[in-house]
Amino acid sequence: MYAQVVVLTYQSPDIDSYTYEIPKELKVEVGQLVEVPFGKRNPTGIVLSISPEIRNSKFEIRNLKKISKIIFNQPLLLPYQIELLKWMSEYYMAPMVNCFEAAMPPLNAKSLKLNAKLVSSVQLSAFSVQQTLVLVPTINQIPETLAKFPRAKNYVVYHNELKLSEKFAAWQKIQSGKADYIFGSRSAIFSPCPNLKEIIIYDEHDGAYKDERSPYFDTLTVAQKISALTKAQIKIVDASPKITTYFQLKSYIKMQMFGVNTKIISMRDEKLRGNFSPISSHLQEELRKKQHILLFLNKKKESGSMFCKNCKFNDYFEKHPEHCPKCKSQDIYFNVLNVDSLRAEVKKITKRLAFPPEARLPLRSEASAKGGSVQRSEIDIQTATVFYSPKINKYDTAVYIQPDSLLNRADLESVETLYSHITNLKKILPENGTLIIQTYNPDDETLKYSASGNYDSYFKSQLENRRLLSYPPFALLVKLTIKGKDKEKIGEIARKTFSNLNSTIQPASPATCVDAGAKRGERFNN
């Protein structure tokens, strides 16, 4: 008998697995962790398949090496996981070993010795409970999500921040079928669930669900494949889903509405009235009130908004322009904001307006909070990290300072980020709380739809724009990265690659893409 083994060590990226002979005294199973000879090393590997004949005829039997030993009798991967990882390797064009290492807990020699008893004792339960997998973007969101599932009596928390022994213990309990709920972040999608009933994904739009290391997988795409393999149902809880997700899986998305009062302030009008501060006159009045206010600012430090005092033109720029691009006047005002400069501006304004002492409580900014605990203040100045804090405060008022950096960015996902920012700000406000949006583009339709929570209108407008530009979901975007030390050689390879792709790939019509996307969503009804 012969086994195809994915060797869990550095190797040639163009080889998925290696053939080994199975010694007669070993009872090898698919999914088992084994030790194999590999050059001068003896790494571990996962048995991918077993057959009575050699799959690759170029190897002679006498040249084959034998599996040294079985590390654990109980397979660490379930059959559907083996199929999933094979598919991932092909779909993402990634080395098989990278797919296996992304899915499994670290399996180095030292950790194996320390956790041998823990993992070898895995026993699958004949009466395993139905299992629900609940995913959140970050581990800080797990506690609040747990509270939403009072039925979870025998749950497991699984994520990459656990200690190695804790990960093995969680993996063991999940695979035994004794855990009814599994709560975790992106890596939990690979949990070995023998009786998976449902996959629930919270805030699927979040970029944390995309792995930026090989195999560069997208969590929802992997979840869809798992659903096809196990018949588990997918449910998405997201108040600001991605356009492509809503297009394909609208009926599987649960959207949340917020009873928040929203006001859009034109910073263009503020400048015309002579107010060149990033704090609008309306916000200055809000600061007078004794309430808990969040000032939200999320952009690069060197970027800013330019206003021409000559022709009244304004726009957003990544760097400080030398003159107005419209009238060439150098009489311009360029506003560069970051957390610290905004904090200084708020202090200056509160002092200038002679606020009562009780209103001038200590300001809290992200920079000042890094050193440790700080006194709760009336005014918090934060970036997007506020959405991922372990316990999000409820504010009376939230203010989005300059969302224009996203509106003016030439990025497919920038408007989706804007919509999610506004939605997340609503989440941290109480019923009838106030959201103020300060912008140089008050008439932008995306901003208006985001402010009112009119997702359907926002979706329809974005879908039409994407149709005209052949963007997803009417096309599939693929990123190719070519690396090397020789810049000229890499440039030449890139040009040839572009030329070859441009001459061989026939673009699909929008109708074909729509049909394919619809079928992708419909398959969950079967």
From TrEMBL:
Pfam families documented for this protein: PriA_3primeBD (PF17764)
Keyword terms, alphabetized: ATP-binding, DNA-binding, Nucleotide-binding
One annotated GO biological process: DNA replication initiation
Record-linked SUPFAM superfamilies: P-loop containing nucleoside triphosphate hydrolases
Alphabetized InterPro entries for the sequence: P-loop_NTPase, PriA_3primeBD, PriA_3primeBD_sf
GO molecular function: 3'-5' DNA helicase activity; ATP binding; DNA binding
Keyword Cell membrane part of the UniProt annotation: no
Domain Primosomal protein N' 3' DNA-binding: 16-105
Protein name (Swiss-Prot/TrEMBL): Primosomal protein N' 3' DNA-binding domain-containing protein
Source species: Candidatus Curtissbacteria bacterium RIFCSPLOWO2_12_FULL_38_9
